[in-house]
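Deliverable D4.2, example record:
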Amino acid sequence: MRKSCIECPYKVKSEHNNKFPLYVDKMFNSGLIKTKSHTCHMIGNVWNEPTEKTICIGSLKNESSL
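Output generated by the structure prediction step:
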């Protein structure tokens, strides 16, 4: 498995990145996304269905810690 990207919102702390996991939760709870795992923002559209090659590694770690 590859490493998380250098700008991963689950790894790099900034005002925007701190809010991003909350936005993911909101999208999941409203039913707009099926899982809290999503596509890496450096690879493609975040809300597209992730594949093994495009999934955000940080979101995998975040989902497993819930």
